[in-house]
Amino acid sequence: MATLTMRAAVLHEPGKPMSIHDVQLREPEHGEVLIRTASVGVCGTDLHFAQGRFPYPTPTVLGHEASGVVEQVGPGVTSIQAGDRVLVCDQMPCGRCGPCLSGRMVYCTDVSAKVRQRGRLCLDDQPLRQYLGVSALAELMLVDAAGVIPIPGDLSFAAAALLGCCLTTGAATIFNTARLRPGQRVLVIGCGGVGLGAIQAARIGGAAHIIAVDPVPHRRDAAAALGATATLDPTDTSTGTDDLIAAIMAAGGERGVDVAVEAVGEPDLATAAFSTLAPGGQAIIVGMMPAGGDIRLPASLLRHGRSMAGSVMGEVRSRHDIPAYMRMVTGGHLVADELATSCWPLEEVNTAFEHAAARKGVRAMIEF
Q: 346: pLDDT confidence band, cut at 50, 70 and 90?
């Protein structure tokens, strides 16, 4: 089979800078799509793997929050064609297993997609592990058609990339996992791309009170601009207490919140999210917790219907939900482009990752 050559940012070892190489990519086989990359967001998940917080086989090409233009489709692909503008979502459900048929596609049990990912990429004739079935920090992406969604002409590539992960994760967590009801009170801990997506969804869904927690001033400002009715700095002691839980409860009128979203990935913050719940409230953990980390729950609060749940990408039904979110963006209800606060060429990928790790802006983007 013919192979293609592209430039890609290769992570050889966690904690070390990536380097640009010519990487080989095979042409699409059955059910696969070849996409010329346009825009890639530097997601917190990418940072975790780049820093070695979570183990992942290396060498690899990171990046999964992406958009581009279809160059070629493999046999059996009929839903899209060459020339289509698309985004890529790393949730690639089979559509046949129990979770898929029950509408919980993110918990798909079919492992065949992971098998197909092997052998797509090579560096100097040595196989590279494809990252999350995407490996977007490259000029081309070869992905399963199940993860490819067409985008309208009036949606920018940057906005589409963010809808491929962070914005959709935040919004779907509110709409799907929390099933927010109008008038409820919402807490969002962490105001990066996911948290700001959740805040906007809470506003759109009619939340009466939205508390945003983040240590970075410009992210708190963004949260307030996008719908938060109160913002808190978790390092601030000006409220007269060092206790984040007490500060949140005070901001929520002492009653607690109905929905708490932890979008950072820190066990102590997950405990805080749960501890601020009103009776019947739900804490939803979307941040990636460290391997081996434990979340402590106050036993006395388990009564009265309080609960905690983990959620993968807000249990998104990608082909149903993401087009709806696209319409929210193009209709002016969901802010996306403004979250892409810095843009970098592939050659400056390490600088982009440094900016993201330092929480400069909201989302650093790699543009092709």
A: very high
- What is the distance between the alpha carbons of residues 57 and 49, in angstroms, rounded to a whole number? 10
Phi, psi of 177 (to 5 degrees): -75, -50
Cβ burial, residue 246 (10 Å; 0-12/13-18/19+): middle
For residue 203, the Cα-to-chain-centroid distance in whole angstroms is 19
In the chain, list all ranges with CATH 3.40.50.720.
Answer: 167-313
- Spell out a b/e string for 310-327, using b for 16 or more CB atoms within 10 Å of the CB, else e: ebbbbbbbbbebbeebbe
CB of 351 within 8 A of CB of 181?
A: no
- Asked whether the beta carbons of 321 and 334 are under 8 A apart, the reply is no
Query: E strands, 153-206, where?
Result: 185-189
CA distance 68 to 66: 7
**H or E segment and range at residue 212:** strand 209-213
Q: How many helices (H) and strands (E) does the chain have?
A: 11, 18
- CA–CA gap between residue 176 and residue 307 (Å, rounded): 16
The CA dihedral of 116, 120, 121, 125, to the nearest 10 degrees, is 110
d(CA 217, CA 224): 11
Q: For the chain, report the end-to-end CA distance as a whole number of angstroms.
A: 27
144: Cβ–Cβ under 8 A, 6 or more apart, which residues? 31, 32, 33, 92, 113, 116, 133
Tokens representing 58?
Answer: 């290396």
Query: pLDDT, tens digit, for every residue of 263-304?
Result: 999 999 999 999 999 999 999 999 998 877 889 888 888 888
**Residue spans in the chain of domains classed CATH 3.90.180.10:** 3-164+336-367
Domain 167-313, what fold?
Rossmann fold (3.40.50)
Report how far residue 38's alpha carbon sits from residue 287's, in angstroms, rounded to the nearest whole number.
Answer: 27
* Euclidean distance between CA atoms 53 and 47, whole angstroms: 8
Whether this prediction's pTM lies above 0.85 is answered by yes
DSSP 3-state of 45: helix
In a 3-state reduction of DSSP, which class is residue 88?
A: strand
Pick the CATH number of 3-164+336-367 from 3.90.180.10, 3.40.50.720, 3.40.50.150, 3.40.190.10: 3.90.180.10
